[in-house]
Amino acid sequence: MTKKHILVVDDSRDILFLLQLSLKQLGPEWVISTAMDGPSALEILRREKVDLVLTDYMMPGMSGTELAEEIRRLSPDTQVVMMTAYDSSRLREKVAGLQLQGYVGKPFTVPEILRALRKVIRPVEPSLARQPPTESEPPEAAQNLIFDHLKTLGAKTGALYVLLVDIDGEILEAIGQAPAEKLTRLASFIAANFAAAGEIAGLLNDNASTFKSSYFESQQFNIYAHDVNGNCILTVVFGPAGKPGTVWFYTRQTAEALAGLVDRTPRQQGKNHNSDMVADTFKNILENEARSTDGTSRGSRPC
Prior knowledge:
By secondary structure, the chain is of the alpha/beta class. Helix content is 44%, strand content 18%. It has helices at residues 13-22, 38-47, 64-74, 88-94, 110-121, 139-157, 180-203, 244-259, 266-269, 273-292; strands at 4-9, 30-35, 52-56, 79-84, 102-105, 161-166, 171-175, 213-217, 222-227, 232-238.
């Protein structure tokens, strides 16, 4: 197997450590190196072949854009993805001549960073882009399809947030802007609600049934949650202008489409204590960094 090389550049030692752990999910063919500043990154690029550089934008000394300029001169074939809390559209205009391969907004989650890098390192052939994954295809293909389904559901229903949550209350995927703490608590409450309904069913001597859906209505927002496969819950949070019937229809339709996909995702196949610990720590570090830059946390906590 030919090894490929990703270099992560960030002035935060904690973020470097956790990104190095998280990016191992890309596969055994990827070697992950780190550097805490631009000059150190350039030293590595001079010594070794680097296929992709994931760099922070705001760093003391040499900025991410200055590093990208040097990379273009030193190693034109190296792909560059930039992490930034800066407005991405303005940044694109600023660095248009550098032809960066991608941008990741800070604060981000592990699924977001993996998804952004997979788009760069694994371009999908157009003829295969919309085909469901087969058993022989990598689980990442299923994860990308899950994200597409949630994004489509959000667009059709006008949802504020769309979440795919497991029965332990952990977010598998999330669409929509919101503080990470809010989404995490919401996911826990949704799972607890389904668990409580299961207990009620037991009291009524209906232990064989699976609780299928729940609906919460308030003046400011509504929540509709639907079982996917007995292990996951699809949840749509929408405003008072949303039509419950439309949300109900498309959520059920999406839940059916997701049922065959969730078992193929890396999180469902390999949940373990270490990945939970990394995700929790990663979320806390990014939230602290967001507070220091007056940013707003976003996204999900992977299993």
